[in-house]
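Exercise 7 asks you to align residues with tokens for two separate proteins.
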Amino acid sequence: MLSEARQVLAHIHRPIDAELWGSDMIGALSGHGGGGNGTEVMAELATSLVPAAERDATPEALALLRILAAIGSPELQAAATPAARRVAGSGVSDQDWAPVIGSPTVGKCWHYSDVGGRQESLTVSFGYGEAEHALSVLIDHGRGGKIKDAWVGDAAGLLDKTWLAAENDPLIVFEAIEPADAGARLAKAVAAGECPSKPDEADDLTAHRALLRARVHYLAAQ
């Protein structure tokens, strides 16, 4: 993992790209299971990867620690945050995105669903400076409110496109919502579990699970 960090992180210049890389890495280690496997992997990273990265003490190792502190479980954050502080304090150079990673501004939030309420797509936009990204989650209420899919995309113009598409479809219900409401809905969906029905949905969830859960915690703290 440290070897991959050396190869990849030198070429990443935006905090969201760093978060997505870290989330994908954690997901690959956790596998497709959305339950205990992710928790166990986070705990293992806290006791193995974090000390190894601190010993490595390179700019890429410090970047890795910053990422783990931003999107890891509370246990992983508790280990990675002071480790990153110690490495930076020893004179290792930080990435330009290090001061802001894990702390985006919260932008507009919305959701839409079919008129029967069977499935709901919920989107929250986040910003690092002027660049905004959108985290979207597909919730299947026909299967207990579990998460069917999750993805991240460019937020520019997305709200308008979604609103226009919903306005022209009488079977779609669209509504802008407040961040607190969005966070509560996402927290409930995360607690319900996952229910991907297609391989690409399972891959999306695996890659974005850590980032999604970190954003849910972040919204709850706002």
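Second protein for Exercise 7:
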Amino acid sequence: MSAPSPVVAILMGSDSDLPAMAECARVLEDYRVPYDIRVLSAHRSPAEAATYARDAALRGLRVIIAGAGGAAHLAGAMAAYTTLPVIGVPLDSSPLGGFDALLATVQMPPGVPVAAVGVGSMGAKNAAHLAVAILALADADLRTRLAERRRKMAEEVLAKAATLPDRLRKILGGG
């Protein structure tokens, strides 16, 4: 039996972005969402990046996640060549700590939107969660897995909240 075809693309402008973007892959694997992962650069391999975006829907992809630092044009370049949803992950690989990447990701011209998440690995995780929410619109099983994960997160938060008074007393030295 062959592996299911990827429905999400995880793209990064450089292989040095892999540690952050691996968090995106981790979330998709938790949801059992198949993905394609690769390095494509809007500046160093523009023809290949454009071809990938143009052909993405034909290959069965439904969402593109693109992480990049610095000028961070990868997500915008993808959005220019496809009508699929594109989620940009600004990465903190420049001296500006990701602020430049964040601005380049969120400041897209009207009509060519890119959804933007937080900077770095936290943003990569949220990009995957957002991709799952988009895919769950047309996939009842995935919608159930998403709802179950959110239910478990709520339970974990409430369980931790219940222990706060005892933990606070220990911190304050009261026992």
